[in-house]
Specification:
- There is one protein chain.
- This protein has 317 residues and is an alpha/beta fold.
- The chain has ten helices and 15 strands.
- The strands form three sheets. Strands 3, 4, 5, 6, 7, 14 and 15 form a seven-stranded mixed β-sheet that branches.
- The N and C termini lie close together (11 Å).
- The chain binds NADP nicotinamide-adenine-dinucleotide phosphate.
- The site of NADP nicotinamide-adenine-dinucleotide phosphate (NAP) has 31 residues, from helix 1, helix 4 and helix 5.
């Protein structure tokens, strides 16, 4: 089968299209999917560049797993003996390592049936970014109706889902992004918008119960004054800036304000919820660009720019 592969760590140019063995069902819980679409995440860039913590997992000098991709949508082609939730021909979406390829074989517990009103591209845009936003706000932030929530980096993959999900959870939402994205972020449902090129939210005197730093560009300390007494700062990117982990450790034991690092946990019940929210038109992915698989280098370059508006997806079939 065809796949986007990388044999050494480096810039987007290390990506190439290659022929690799088609995966097959080895475990009774697996589902063989013919991939139609997969999204490109910052996670793929970190693994491609060989960012040090990823090398501990994927090989110190060269990548062991050569196919990137963590989100998928496609058609079920075969099922393991224990799979009851899906049948051959179903359209599914979910989380799966190595999804930048024509076929993948994830377990059933990280998949869900696609929303009836979504394209394959939209479905592939949902899993990682939307689950990250949902779990951060609902489980870590424990948002309640009426809470004041600020989403920093509201125009990115995680951020644009976070705005919609915070609104769904009943919060009063302030979204922070750059000038050109203000209008469409407002259209996602944000009650207030702040242009970070004009104003630093941390200096305007307003306070929030939850601050979700969806792009890892702020620090807990820089947000302290903007948190309510029991406010929580949540970051999606624990490794930037450099001293973040130390700040988080200190912050998490001093006073009543808390700092939390969140790592997404893929699971089918959150995907099921996201499917329902999508069908009820409470959540909708925005796809800035869709690249064919053979333009994988351009897709990586685009995501690496850090300016993606919503999501970037690959068309694989
Ligand atoms: N912890 C987890 O489980 C998990 C899961 C998924 C992602 N992540 C991490 O979360 C981060 C965000 O991922 P993503 O997919 O949402 O990224 P993304 O889509 O690439 O984010 C792009 C957005 O970032 C905004 N941005 C860039 N610089 C900014 C700044 N200085 N201030 C505010 N906004 C800025 C841009 O908006 P403007 O053009 O308007 O500036 C753009 O819309 C990444 O670090 C990723 O690794 C973590």
């Amino acid at each position: 089968m065809k796949a986007a592969i990388f044999k050494s760590y480096g810039s987007p140019e290390v990506m190439e299209i290659g022929d690799v063995d088609k995966p097959f069902i080895k475990d009774e819980d697996q589902v063989l999917i013919k991939v139609v679409s997969a999204s490109v995440n910052q996670y793929d860039n970190l693994f491609r560049k060989g960012y040090f913590p990823t090398r501990l997992e994927n090989g110190l000098t060269k990548p062991k797993a050569q196919i990137l991709g963590i989100d998928v949508s496609g058609t079920v082609e075969a099922i393991g003996k224990n799979v009851q939730k899906f049948k051959i021909g179903d359209h599914v979406f979910g989380s799966c390592a190595g999804s930048h390829a024509e076929y993948v074989c994830p377990r059933q517990n990280v998949l869900s049936i696609m929303p009836i009103n979504s394209t394959f591209e939209e479905a592939a845009a949902i899993p990682c970014a939307a689950q990250t936003a949902l779990q951060a706000l609902r489980d870590v932030g424990q948002i309640e109706a009426g809470d004041k929530v600020l989403i920093y980096g509201a125009s990115g993959g995680v951020g644009h889902f976070a705005v919609q999900l915070a609104v769904y959870l009943g919060a009063e939402v302030t979204a922070v992004c750059s000038t050109s994205n203000l209008e469409w972020v407002k259209n996602l449902g944000a009650h207030h918008v702040i242009d970070y090129t004009e104003e630093d939210f941390a200096r305007n005197g307003k306070k929030y119960d939850v601050i979700l730093d969806a792009v890892g560009k702020r620090t807990f300390f820089s947000c302290l004054r903007s948190l309510t007494e029991n406010g929580i700062y949540i970051t999606e990117h624990p490794l930037y800036p450099k001293y973040h982990p130390i700040q988080l450790m200190i912050g998490s034991i001093i006073g009543s304000k808390k700092a939390k690092i969140h790592l997404a946990k893929p699971n089918d019940s959150d995907l099921d919820l996201l499917r329902v929210l999508m069908e009820q038109e409470k959540v909708r992915p925005v796809i800035e660009k869709c690249f064919p698989l053979n333009e994988i280098v351009e897709a990586h370059r685009h995501v690496e720019s850090g300016r993606t508006k919503g999501k970037v997806v690959l068309k694989i079939e």
